[in-house]
Amino acid sequence: MPTPHPAVSLPISAGLGLRAPHLRQVRQEMPAIAWFEVHSENYFVSGGPALAVLEEIRQNYPLSLHGVGMSLGGADDLDRDHLRQLKALAARIQPAAISEHLCWSAIGGRWLNDLLPLPYTREALDQVCRHVEQVQETLGRAILVENVSSYLRFLPEEMPEWTFVAEVAKRTGCGVLLDVNNIHVSACNHGFSAADFLAGIAVGSVGEIHLAGYEEVDGLLVDTHSRPVYPAVWELYRAALERFGPLPTLIEWDQDIPSLDILQGEAATAQNYLDTVTEARHVRAA
Amino acid sequence: MSALRELQTDFAAAMFAGDAAKLLAHCAGDPERARQGIAAYRRSVLANLAAAVQATYPVSENIVGGEFLAAACRRYAESHPSRSGDLNAYGDQFAALLADYAAAASLPYLPDVARLEWLILQVHGAEDAPAQDLSRLATAPPESWGELRFRLDPAHALLASRWPVVRIWEVNQPDNGGDFAVDFRQPENALIQRRPAGIAVERLGAGEQALLAALQAANTLGEAVEQAISDDEDFDLQGALQRFIGNGLLRLAY
User: Could you say which DSSP state residue A184 is in?
Assistant: First the structure.
């Protein structure tokens, strides 16, 4: 059975993105949730209660640090201060995984603070690989890189997105954080086949899966993380698990955040898919 | 310029200058569809930046209302570049924007309220204080106290205002008991300090303010007291030391 990429030591179970509205409840009730993921930048502080709370949660749950601001695909050099802060946070928290996005967020020293799409060119691939190597060298460990959703495609397109993602993993030794919702959103927006995307990613290179909900605006799917996971995305998730084996899976919800039990319900659904795939593999192995 | 840099530069221009023509030339597929995609990114980029600023200024929002503050934040997002991949670092110049903002001219104290809120955010994430050690103060003979210097709790900030910023902050707290009276003629100095129970915002006398500012700048206690007395001839050194030792602000005497 394929195993998750070695950059990850998360349990092969469904976890949740931990957001501010649920912090108090999680600390008080310590709900049975397999693991949590937080946005790294929210803890780029020198001290104080936010960091203390994260350290407390780390005592009780496996934790993944998920960055939204490294700008791996930026034409600018990486921001050394940003990298230094991530390194300090990782040293303090000792997370079970560290991930970043395959996107860019800044140009000419001005930050757009968003997950912006790359042109799938050899030039962009070289730049991303240089930056992933720099991050991994600084942190002293392999990271995961996540495919983003996109609303634009650029010319020239020298390779499909999945080849770009697979090449980054192959060249740098990093793992893939496969965001299944993002594959669906981009496939619908750009008219490619989500199955082709999955087939283009090497078995064994994936370390984690993300699931979330999107919104549709005038026929464009927008990755809002504001809804339950859609049925088509659950189906794609099943196909991903069948190809890559069971993987740590995260439910993300960042806007119109519902109560924790609704998120736990989403995680339970993901856990069912995980259990089904695991059982089917055991049956086949027997 | 590399092709990647050119694309990203044109992308940024489409977001901040609303000039999508150059970016469109890079886009594959149906131009109408690409325009829609660019508009979606523009909404997302500006909304994220504005929301990050807005989240830092809840008291200002309480004073002017959500819609007013959202409009000011949107203007900030369009005009003030973000310089960090960490959105929590964005919004430091918001007080200056409010000071020049014609729509806020009738609220001249608003920029100082915003300054206070920015400092609160900084104090919130500042370094943790070392254990308090004032043994030098306890063991040194009082006539040599003037030579001592102090290290202060890193999780504090000072704000001197022409306006009653502390009072304004107090009446805008959720637990305010219902007394909303503010004497707008009263200037106030604020001490912002992170304590185990949360962020404290307290009034400082002119002498206390001068004393702390001087100690913070690594002046000796003797020099700091001179500053304090020149700003406040009734300055009470013993009361001030008691207060700042008691609230943990003075961490180390050396």
Answer: H
